[in-house]
Amino acid sequence: MNYFLPSEYALDLKFAYTVEQAYIAIGNLSKPDRDLYRVGILALDFPYMFVYGMLASGLLFLVWKKPKVLLIPLGIVLFDLIENILIIQILDSYPVEKPIMVSWASIITTCKWLLVCLLALFLLVGTVRLYLTKNFLDLQHQNSEVKEI
Known about the structure:
By secondary structure, the protein is mainly α. Helix content is 78%, strand content 0%.
C-alpha cells in the first residue's frame, strides 16, 4: 500500500485516529491520490485480507489444533472488511465530512489492530507451547528407553 500512498495518510495503518486527524490526512491528498488510495484498497487490501486470513487460520490451527482460535483471524478479516468499506465511503464523500463514519472507522481499525496483537500473541504462545511439549515428550521418550535397558 505504501507504493500507492504514504503511510502517514493511510487511515487503515494507524492504530486509532480522531476525526480531525483523518480529515487532515485526507485533505493532504490530491483527488488523484484519493482515487489511488481507493484503488489500492479495492485491488490490494481486499484480496490481501483474505490471503492473510487464510494463512493466519492455517498457522493458528497448526499450533493450537482447536477450531475456536480461528475466530481471531475471522474477526480480523471482518473488521478489515468493514474498515475498508468505511474508508472508501469517507473518501467518496470528501470534502463533505462524516464525523460519525470516521469515528466508527477508527473504532473498527483499533479493534482490527487489537485482534492482530492477539493473533501474534496466540501464535507466539502456541509455538512455544508446541516446542516445549515436543521437547518434553522427546525427553520422556528418552527416559523410558533408559529405564528399559
